[in-house]
Amino acid sequence: MSTFFKQRLGNHARELFRYLRYVFNDYFMLALIFFIGGAGYYYSNALKTLQPNHTWQPLLILIVLVFGIQLGRLATLVKRPDYVFLIPREGQMHSYLSRAFQYSAIMASGIQLIITVILLPIIELSLGFNSLEIISFLILMVTLKISWLDYDYISSFQVQDKWYLSKVMIRWIIPVIVLGISIYLNVYIGLAVSIVVCVLLAFKKNTAKYNPLNWRKIIDTEEARMHGIYQFFNLFTDVPMISGSIKRRKFLDLILKKIKLIPQNTYLYLYSHGIIRDNEMSGLYRRLTIIGGILLLLVTGKILPIILCLLFIYLIGFQLIPFYFHFYDNVFVHIYPINQKNQIKSFQTVIGWMLVTTAIIFGIIVGIANYKNVNTILGVVFGEAIELFIFLKIYLPRRIKKSEFNR
Amino acid sequence: MTLKVTDLVGGYSQVPVLKNVNFDIKDGELVGLIGLNGAGKSTTINHIIGLLKPFSGSIKINDLTINEDVDGYKKQIAYIPESPIVYKELTLKEHIEMTIMAYNLDVDLAWNKANELLKMFRLENKLDWFPDNFSKGMRQKVMIVCAFITDADLYVIDEPFLGLDPLAVDDLLNLIDKKKREGKSILMSTHVLDTAEKFCDRFVLLHDGHVRMEGNIDELRNAFPDAGESLNDIYLSLAKGGE
User: Fold this and answer.
1) Has residue B99 been placed in a domain?
2) According to the model, what pLDDT value does residue A294 have?
3) B213 in a domain, yes or no?
4) Strands B77-80 and B154-158
């Protein structure tokens, strides 16, 4: 079974690399590098001026680490048909899962170490750790993460729910307690507690593995995990496995009813209904518009609001582009006696309306936040107009043509 | 002559699945497309509805090929796929609106027909539901409703009987009969041979990418005198003998 996992892992890695090729082969990567560089620069500058503070800084460290520890899940790499095909091997699945656990633990610990190292300057500044304490703290983060993953492993089997084995307990309460002790009291006590927890869970793991597997849970969690990965890749290329949930959103029928039922509007009808109802797309649009709006409300300055505004509109528009191919696999769009040339025009119309709405919202917010600064407001308005024109008329068709070519 | 398939060679990639297929369907005729799994039924259908491009040969609907006028060609076809294909974002009502829009139908007239059909298939109170959540049989009914509100000349129906309840099968056969009397043509692929025997005017027996036999049930019986009476017996002896 452990060679079976190795084989799965190989396939998984190959799949990831295949998609990563598309990710790195993109303007978005450039934007991301600039963003990371900018954020790093801003962070290092902020660190230079930072004074030690014993109230908000420890609290910030605690919050960041507790949320950070939620990153990285147990990658079992199981597939839905497994529960049919692997029925006769169920007794040996624990050796498969322990391999999966080892792999996941290494990856997840890596993430934890990166997060902690990024935070180290603040930790040193605020808590005054010496090097031995820092090393203990890093070990503590890894043991906490391993305990976190133990929960995933144990609940892969059909075990009775106990209060001390619940998700909230292991993933939130224990990390808060352990990190609280280490930050406010003593890091060595925190480390000791986390090691005890980890050892206890290791015993529990050992007994749990003789129980029957909880196939449904394993498959559902693994599919949810892969869905997250595919969602990311779907921004860059077409991922066939992606399919989101549907929400009715009846209140928007008012807008949808305005579409006349004529052949030229077939794609307009499809795209507008599709984007509004598809939770993936409308959720993304709503989230980014709200986050952008809040950010713009808080940010003042001459240039910064303009840059943020344009960046967020680009980010939203960019992520909506893959929806162009959403209906490609439905035979009926190929069978309808309609002119396919309307497809791109309809898509531009729908995306256009969405981005114009966002642009207006952003414009109003910038106006409120910077009402004294007429130049910034004018800059936002003109910047948005130019960006929308370039995005919709030049960038969008080119990008679609490029993806069409790659399909 | 509604449909005329001449010397059709075709398939999905370089390798031809269909090797020289010839048959036709006259106005008001129901033709059954019969064959084993992998014989080329679906490939034939995909060529007719224009999803695949023939390597050579031609397909004409009312003397029009797809290359002469794409929209004009497609306007003449209504298609019911083997496994129902619905838009998961659209309600039942919106599926019907899509069809009205795409085929440029008269809204009131189409809705009259649609309401009648919806009632027949007991879907009239589900207009605001998402067919994506329906059972297979009910989704199949949605496909039937959408196909039968169009003014198509050729109905291409891929294995309609599996998953439909007996009442719906009966209703579908009545609908087909009505269309036939209006002079429309139907191409139907199926494995349910006893139903096909009762209702089809002619049969096209596909085997390994060739038309092995074509004709009505009497012609088939004459061609295989030893095989037996029913289409099932004839087909079995042909399929086994063909190995």
Assistant:
1) no
2) 81
3) yes
4) parallel
Distance, in angstroms, between B98 CA and closest chain A CA? 7
Copy the structure tokens of residue A367.
Answer: 């106006």
Residues of chain B with pLDDT > 70, as a percent, come to 99
**H helix runs in chain B, sequence order:** 41-48, 70-75, 92-102, 107-120, 136-148, 166-181, 193-199, 217-223, 231-241
Alpha-carbon A80 to chain mean position:
23
d(CA A329, CA A310): 33
The token duo for A243 is 């399919």
**Cα–Cα distance for residue pair B85/A164, rounded to 1 Å:** 47
Residue A236 has pLDDT above 80, yes or no: no
Taking the CA of residue A75 and the nearest CA in chain B, the distance in Å comes to 29
Q: Which of A7-11, A67-71, A296-300 has the lowest mean pLDDT?
A: A296-300
The model's pLDDT over B168-205, given as tens digits with 9 standing for 90+, comes to 999 999 999 999 999 999 999 999 999 999 999 999 99
Domain hosting B201: range is 1-76+154-163+191-243
Rounded Cα distance between B80 and B160, Å, is 8
CB atoms within 10 A of CB A286: 12
Beta-strand pair B3-10/B18-25: antiparallel
Domain-located, residue B18: yes
The residues in B 108-147 lying below 8 A from A, measured between CB atoms, are 130, 132
Rounded to 5 degrees, what are φ and ψ at A64? -60, -45
Q: Which chain A residues touch B if contact means CB-CB below 8 Å? A: 243, 246, 248, 261-263, 265-266, 269-270, 273-274, 276-278, 327, 330-332, 334-339
Among A273, A276, A335, the residue with its CB nearest the CB of B77 is A335
| pLDDT of res. A242 | 67
d(C-alpha A194, C-alpha A143), whole Å: 6
* Confidence bin at B127 (pLDDT 50/70/90): very high
CATH of the domain at B7: 3.40.50.300
In this prediction, residue A210 carries a pLDDT of 86
SS3 label, residue B27 = coil
In DSSP terms, A157 is beta-bridged to: A213
What is the pLDDT averaged over residues B87-103?
92
pLDDT per position as a tens digit, A209-234: 888 888 888 998 998 899 888 877 87
* Structural domains of chain B, count: 1
On whether any CB of chain A is under 8 Å from the CB of B100, the answer is yes
How far is it, in rounded angstroms, from Cα A235 to Cα A325?
12
Of the candidates B50, B75, B98, the beta carbon closest to that of A266 is on B98
**Confidence tier at A299 by pLDDT (50, 70, 90):** confident
Q: Which helix (H) or strand (E) holds A156?
A: none
Tokens encoding A360: 């207006």
Q: Which of A33, A22, A34, A35 is CA-nearest to residue A321?
A: A22
Average of pLDDT values for A270-293?
A: 86
Nearest CA in chain B to A272: B89
Cα torsion A22, A24, A30, A33: sign: positive
Task: Give me the interface pTM, i.e. the ipTM.
Answer: 0.85
**What pLDDT, in 10s, does the model give residues A5-28?**
999 999 999 999 888 887 776 666
Residue B110: inside a domain, yes or no?
no
Measured distance CA(A112)–CA(A138) in Å, rounded: 8
Assess contact for A73 and A104: CB atoms under 8 A: yes
